[in-house]
Structures are given as structure tokens and as C-alpha cells.
Amino acid sequence: MDTNNTPPVCNYEGSDYQTSFWDQGGREYEDRTEAIALKRLLPESGRLMLELGAGAGRNTSRYAGFERVVLLDYSTTQLAQAQARLGKSDRYIFVAADVYRLPFVDGLFDGATMIRTLHHMADAPKALGQVRKVLGPGSTFILEFANKLNAKAILRYWLGKQDWSPFTLEPVEFVALNFDFHPKAVKKWLGALDFRIKKMLTVSHFRMDLLKKFIPTGLLVFLDSLAQWTGSLWQLTPSVFVRASVTRDGKVPPKGIPRHNSDEAIDWFKCPKCEASPLEFEKEHLHCSACGSDWAIRDGIYDFREPLGK
Ligand SMILES: [Zn+2]
User: Fold this and answer.
1) Ligand 1 mean position to 158 CA, how many Å?
2) How far is CA 96 from CA 103, 137, 289, 303, 305, in A?
């Protein structure tokens, strides 16, 4: 299997995204409404959570019910920011990797989140398939996706100000490597992967500069928190949260040996190049004896993007 032929990745390496977008970008409303949605969707407790597209760890502290969290991002500079924010502890494991080639053994996690990340996936079903593989029976997956069928896009389409239709099922790439999805398409992909959708919440009903400027943030957040529940009926907001689960008797992927009970992160990994596991720990890197690849560990970050040069 050629696992190296994967779609392009949106890379935030060296980006000041956390500062420019979240800390100084007037996104308090978005951050607070997301926190509410997450609280409503997260299981009370869990063992091991995979946070896909963790970035600088803005959401990580919200997963307090889980014993440990693996923060995964393609950018090591984003992960370094997350380390600085959360501190180095056994509780957090930092992994730089490509979502299309996840470096974990099958069925490892009992929880996963993907917030504002599917947005950058040129091949969303392929990425979701990778997530499904590393989730065990009875696990929970919380997915946020950008919704092409949002009220603003519908209005713009009807007024002739937008050439793409919000009603068709294919994703729309409105800026390079930025995709919006149709809720029906996302439901179909999840269903095909044996996920059961348990709950849907719509978020950011009032994401309009004019409203955010003149109405107190606290009030907008409160109104959004009420409106979120309509997500089970219809989804017309720019952001949609889904809680999906893998049934207890859900088919565990046949390949690989899940080592659910190991507390050692070293036992969780597989080689993203040839899919062999376990990997061997050698000083500053992990070694794959099957294909000979070495994967760096730098400043507490496991780097599975490219093997070390020979
Ligand atoms: Zn290998």
C-alpha cells in the first residue's frame, strides 16, 4: 500500500494564527460558543483523547474529563505554543503528523475531536477514515465542520453575488485549502464509516461583524447557546458540531493489534510509512525495524511528518 501519495496539507508552520485570529482577532464570541457546544457534546470521562488539528491548544484544557490527550497537528511551531500554554506533563503527548497517515495503532483511542480542521481537508472522507481506524468500540468522535449551506451563502447565492450553489453536496473550496461542506455529505461520510450520529449542534448563529460590534458578547453567546439546540432540526449556521459514536460492537479494523491497556506512549505508535508496529525507542528518535525509517523526537514533540535523513 502506497501511503505516501496523500492529498496536500494546510500547514500552519511559523503561523501567528493563535495570536492574530484568536487572541486579537475579535473572536471571543466564536471561542465561547464553541466552548459551550463542546461541553454539551463531550463525554463526562474518558481514557485517551486524540485532538486532531490541536494547533496551539486553545481547546485542550476543555478535555479535562479525559485522563490523557494526544495533541496532533502538522505544525511543530503550533505544538510548541501548545506546550508553552499547557506545560510539559505526562498528561499531554505532542505529535506532529499528517492526518492522512496517522501514526497510531488501530482502535487506540476512546475519544477524538476535530474542530476547525476538516475545513482544510482536500479529501475529507479519507481523513475521516483515518480517524475511524484509530478509534475503538464505544468511543466518541466530536467533529466540527464549516457548513456551505449557511444562511449568508444562501442569501448571496439568491442575490447572484456568489457563483457556487450552497445546495449541492460537493465541498466548495472558497480559498486555497479552505473547504466548506454540505451537512448531508458529512452525514453520509460518517455513516459509511460505521459512525452513529448522536447529536448535532449549530454554532455561531450571530457571526456578523455588525452584531458583534453593537451587541454585548455575553448576550450574543447566551442567545447562541439557546439556538444551538436547533441543530438537530436544521443546520444553517457557518459552523456545525456533530457528536458521533462507534458502537460497542462496532467493527474493529482487522489490521494491527490494539494495545488498549498500555500506558506507554511508545506502544501507541505505528510507522506512518509502512504501518508496522511497535516502533523501537532509540535515544532521540523512534525506529521502525520493518522499513528502517527513523522518526524524530524533538523538544518533547514526536515528529512523524518525514523520516530522518540517512
Ligand atoms: Zn516503517
Assistant:
1) 52
2) 10, 25, 21, 5, 6
